[in-house]
Amino acid sequence: MTDEDEKFLRRAIELAAKSRADGDPPFGSLLVGPDGTVLAEDHNTTVSQSDISLHPELKLAVWAARELEPAVAAATTMYTSCQPCGMCQGAIERSGLGRVVFALSGEQVTALKPPATAPPVRLEGPALYDEARVPVEGYYT
């Protein structure tokens, strides 16, 4: 962890505090280009915009995929106040970002929350392999 990494993580934490002050969950993120320039930053707006997908990591990954050339994205670092959730991690991987630096781990965030009250979602599958593979097979070649 460099002094520069700590500086950008502190900015992500500032964005998280702004998010909380605005009535949204306390999460913030920024993208820093290979030359150290802040390319974009955002915070959580899931409550204020009534959209459960509006995590800052997801919004910045979508922005990067649309706006950055693949080589630039691969040299970009996302700094985020907390470890990205599964949804955001998938988007980050698909966007081609090269590095993520986070302040709190997922376990640390969970420890700061009250116990979950919603029952876990049941996942069932795989099923219908022969039928389901038809639209996918050959797409990635």
From TrEMBL:
<dbReference type="Pfam" id="PF00383">
    <property type="entry name" value="dCMP_cyt_deam_1"/>
</dbReference>
<protein>
    <recommendedName>
        <fullName>CMP/dCMP-type deaminase domain-containing protein</fullName>
    </recommendedName>
</protein>
<dbReference type="InterPro" id="IPR002125">
    <property type="entry name" value="CMP_dCMP_dom"/>
</dbReference>
<feature type="domain" description="CMP/dCMP-type deaminase">
    <location>
        <begin position="3"/>
        <end position="136"/>
    </location>
</feature>
<dbReference type="GO" id="GO:0003824">
    <property type="term" value="F:catalytic activity"/>
</dbReference>
<dbReference type="InterPro" id="IPR016193">
    <property type="entry name" value="Cytidine_deaminase-like"/>
</dbReference>
